[in-house]
Write a structure and sequence with these properties.
flat; alpha+beta; Immunoglobulin-like; 6 helices
């Protein structure tokens, strides 16, 4: 009876272990399936939408749209679950009465869908602003046209919304205006990015412009100060280098002279006939050989001479 109970416990434990393993595998599988890479670099040029495809082969794409007074996304006919990286949206443009559509593209793999990503317009048209930037110290001017087609149709209810922020940060700040917009209080020497979208009755209309970035220049005073500081630092460095060189030449002249002088050499005929003797000089060792004996001076006691006893002068 005890053996049967133990076997039953083992079977139950193994079943629970298998169930846990299956749950973990299912969770990993769901996680891998949910990680569908969203489309990148989505651009629209009139009726053609393009994007950068994913590296995986089994990813499909769907292009969707909505007008300025709708939030629901609708699939573009002919652009559903396609493997291409572009699609023509002329059919959707023709069906919509307003004509200015906001476009999105989503990725799908094995039934798992990514978040739709909005497309941007590289060139201005009736539904997307044409943007030009002028940067000045402390502010950025966004040049926009006030006589666009939406303004003619909706009057003052059609505005430009300029989203802006520092490069690398989300574009959360924005300003609305009918024409050009000047953004003040910007940091000098910092790059700012922006995008512009039409707003009709407070709702986005058409695709926004693609993000553009511009460097805010520094004032002339700051630039002039930089131009003064750099040469001054260079002059100070050269003066310090000259002082150090003069100090070394004055206080270490003998050592420098010793380092630069050539090594001493003894003539061969002098060093040939003598015993070598090690003599250090200024930290260097060289050998001096004594002179041969025949070159030694003769002591007075050993001098040989004749005695002169008389000197006679003859008449010339």
């Amino acid at each position: 009876m005890k053996l049967l109970t133990a076997l039953l416990i083992q079977v139950i434990a193994r079943g629970e272990l298998r169930a846990k393993l299956r749950a973990k595998l299912r969770a990993k599988l769901n996680t891998s399936l949910s990680e569908v890479p969203p489309p990148q670099n989505i651009r629209v040029d009139k009726w053609l939408v393009t994007w950068t495809p994913a590296t995986e082969d089994d990813v499909r794409y769907t292009v969707q749209y909505n007008s300025f007074d709708e939030e629901k996304l609708t699939d573009v006919p002919g652009c559903v679950n396609i493997a291409l990286n572009s699609c023509n949206i002329a059919s959707a443009q023709a069906e919509d009465e307003q004509g200015c559509l906001r476009l999105h593209v989503r990725a799908e793999r094995r039934g798992v869908k990514s978040t739709p990503v909005e497309a941007c317009s590289r060139h201005g048209d009736d539904c997307s602003p044409e943007v030009n930037l002028i940067a000045r110290p402390g502010f950025l001017t966004v040049m926009l046209r006030s006589n666009h087609s939406l303004a003619k149709e909706h009057g003052g209810h059609a505005l430009h919304r300029v989203y802006y922020g520092k490069e690398g940060e989300p574009l959360e700040d924005y300003e609305d205006d009918e024409a050009s917009v000047s953004l003040h209080g910007l940091e000098e020497g910092v790059r700012y990015c922006m995008k512009v979208q039409y707003m009709v009755f407070g709702n986005p209309a058409g695709p926004p412009s693609c993000i553009k970035c511009e460097l805010i220049p520094k004032t002339k005073e700051a630039a002039g100060l930089t131009g003064i500081i750099v040469p001054a630092v260079a002059v100070v460095f050269l003066l310090a280098l000259s002082v150090m060189a003069a100090y070394v030449l004055v206080y270490h002249y003998e050592k420098i002279k010793l380092w630069l002088q050539p090594p001493c050499e003894i003539p061969p005929h002098v060093s040939h006939h003598a015993e070598r003797q090690h003599v250090p000089r200024y930290g260097r060792a060289f050998h001096i050989n004594p002179l041969p004996e025949r070159y030694h001076p003769v002591p007075p006691s050993e001098e040989r001479c004749d005695v002169i006893s008389r000197v006679t002068l003859d008449d010339v």
